[in-house]
Design brief:
Mean pLDDT: 81
Helix content: 25-40%
Number of strands: 15
Distance between the termini: 19 Å
Largest sheet: 8 strands, mixed
Number of helices: 18
Structural class: alpha/beta
Strand content: 5-15%
């Protein structure tokens, strides 16, 4: 509520850090005189500006400030790093150095997805030495701090100078900058990026997505803006982009008849999956080798040796299966009324990652020049992993599993304007603390673990670098728990343990959501997605209680419900029964010029806050002062 009793529409939370309690009291007293700021508690204040309500949580120690950031959602961090007037020379930097200590603690967070985006930090500095202040501003910029303001209400030469802006004017200017950084932002797109991992990986993604949907609302997963899929993830992304719910897909695997997807079997040991051309190819090659061997014998030479059998005749072994059977299944699903097997006709943007088998290059079906390829055919190509499936021929070129060249397409999602990304990566290795555990296993198990290790290391390294380069992006990765990885690593193509993997995926995903819930609630709220774990907690309790889970246990009341959720919101629905997409500004692709309507100009009087003499050099050095307010991670 505002001081006059009117209700505000937007609420923002700000973490205010300063080492000195008297500095905090001075700031909020000045803010109260300027805007009517009122105290909420001993460590909290509230102010209303530009139709928004700002709640300030005050912390005086770096450790307690960091703990607060890990327990609640804050739209902005305000660092008050101003000098103590009249302090001896060696102590003038104490407050600033403590602030850097907090930044270092925040930056050292080992889980990069929990790291607070430094672009949402506003620092206020002051001092008696202009050169020293310039160095402090550069130091903050080098750490990636979003904005730095210089307090000119304190003159080191003559504190009673009447030309100085007043303390209330300074405080009001800070609040204006806070409002500019938190209120005037464009909301980007929401993307799902599902990686590969075989049939067991597909099962994990089903269970994880069921948990995620239970934490949001029915139908949420079908309302994302973009879907990216690789290998097994291509299947789940294609299904969701076509409007099928995750419950329907799980029900089809479990043999339920209620949904729009008829029951199907993931068993590879079926004639429809055999690659007869590949199976007969060794016969033709053997005939050719036999002719060569006969000629060698006639010349009196031994045609075979151990080296030749090992190194020269590897071409005798071909992939025994092809993914045509799965392609036919996907095609039948996507040709149903209300769906589409054409990327260009889908209501949501879908991209399928694959690898050109000969060029060893990653391609993105659904993007030019591959948008004409049928969705089901693209999924077949993305699933064609050696040595299980043969390559898929499309337009005269052969394609194999997209995981050969990418673990996840989250970089492509960022390039297309996504700032909230959900990543599913089931292709991770089993980790054992027991020395020799891997040595005791067979060659195929260890080869599988090595592939998983290479894949996840590639993803983790890329993710950590990209998130530091794009702090405005919120990315959440969901991985199988280590115990579940052991089950999934026995045979990635094993179709039988779907219930066991679903349960493990659901419980491990919920554990991760609880760990990051304070941030997810805010990030999802920015995009209008509700967040409440009550339903998922109820399902998890049921799954933990049951010694052997059934499909019904994945529903709170133990009753299978595969009904399609009603469209959300008002207005005319589209041709698939969905409501019109929310009217929010689409973020242009990275590097594309922003439309004029998306540009927010800052109007802060120089008399109140001035960094004009430093603007041009600091823009080049650290990018601290900008005329455009970039889209950020928080609302």
């Amino acid at each position: 509520m505002s001081p006059d009793g009117s209700r505000t529409q937007t609420h923002k939370r700000v973490l205010y850090y300063t080492r000195r309690k008297d500095r905090a009291s001075e700031f909020f007293d000045a803010l109260g005189k300027a805007t009517g700021c009122i105290p909420l508690s001993d460590n909290g204040f509230e102010a209303v500006y530009d139709g928004a309500q700002f709640s300030f949580v005050v912390k005086h120690e770096p450790g307690t400030a960091l703990k607060a950031l890990h327990q609640g959602f804050f739209n902005l961090v305000l660092l008050d790093l101003r000098e103590t007037p009249g302090a001896p020379g060696p102590r003038r930097r104490d407050d600033f150095d403590r602030g850097l200590r907090l930044l270092d603690l925040m930056d050292s967070e080992p889980d990069v997805e929990r790291r607070y985006g430094f672009h949402r930090i506003l620092a206020v500095v002051s001092g008696s030495d202009s050169k020293d202040i310039d160095e402090r501003i550069v130091a903050l910029g080098a750490r990636g701090v979003g904005r730095v303001l210089r307090d000119e209400s304190e003159c080191p030469i003559h504190m009673a100078c009447k030309r100085l802006p007043s303390k209330p004017e300074m405080a009001a200017g800070v609040l204006r900058e806070i409002a500019a950084m938190t209120l005037h932002r464009r909301v980007g797109d929401v993307a799902l990026c599902a990686s590969g991992g075989g049939i067991t990986g597909l099962y994990f993604e089903m269970g994880a997505l069921k948990c995620l949907e239970d934490c949001c609302s029915p139908g949420t997963l079908n309302e994302f803006d973009m879907y990216f899929g690789i290998s097994a993830g291509a299947v789940i992304s294609g299904v969701l982009a076509n409007g099928y719910t995750i419950g329907e897909f799980m029900g089809a695997v479990a043999g339920e008849q209620q949904g729009r997807i008829p029951p199907f079997d993931m068993n590879l040991l079926d004639a429809s999956h055999l690659d007869f051309q590949g199976l007969t190819a060794p016969v033709r090659q053997l005939a050719r080798i036999a002719r060569h061997a006969l000629m060698e014998l006639l010349r009196g030479r031994l045609p075979f040796s151990l080296e030749s059998l090992v190194f020269e005749y590897g071409d005798l072994f071909h992939a025994p299966f092809n993914a045509a059977g799965f392609e036919a299944l996907m095609r039948s699903m996507f040709l149903r009324k209300g769906c589409s097997n054409d990327f260009r006709r889908l209501g949501r943007r879908l991209f399928i990652g694959a690898t050109d088998h000969d060029l060893k290059e990653h391609v993105l079906f659904g993007a030019p020049p591959f948008e004409h390829v049928p969705v089901s055919r693209a999924i077949q190509a993305s699933m064609s992993i050696n040595p299980v499936f043969t390559p898929t021929l499309i337009d005269g070129r052969y394609f194999v599993d997209g995981a050969v060249t990418r673990t996840s397409n989250f970089v492509e999602a960022i390039e297309r304007g996504s700032d909230l990304i959900i990543v599913l990566d089931p292709l991770v290795p089993f980790v054992s603390k027991q020395a020799g555990a891997a040595r005791a296993r067979g060659v195929f198990w260890n080869a599988d673990q090595d592939i998983r290790t290479v894949s996840f290391t590639r993803y983790e390294t890329t993710r950590n670098w990209v998130l530091r380069r794009h702090p405005e992006v919120s990315l959440y990765t969901f991985l199988p728990a280590n115990r579940l990885r052991q089950v999934m690593s026995v045979n990635p193509m094993d179709h039988r343990p779907y219930l066991e993997i679903w349960r493990g995926a659901y419980l491990s995903t919920l554990k991760r959501i609880h760990a990051l819930g304070y941030r997810m609630r805010g990030d999802l709220g920015v995009h209008g997605i509700p967040f409440d774990t009550a339903r998922a907690d109820e399902v998890a309790a049921r799954l933990r209680h049951q010694p052997i889970a059934t499909f019904a246990d994945f529903f709170p009341d133990g009753k299978v419900d595969l009904r399609v959720p009603a469209p959300k919101g008002g207005g005319d629905a589209d041709d698939r029964g969905r409501p019109p997409r929310p009217l929010r500004g689409r973020v242009p692709a990275r590097g594309a010029p922003a439309p004029p309507s998306a540009v927010v100009r800052r109007h802060i009087p120089i008399a109140t806050i001035s960094s004009q003499p430093l603007r041009q050099p600091l823009r080049r050095i650290a990018g601290l002062v900008s005329e455009r307010i970039s889209p950020g991670r928080f609302q």
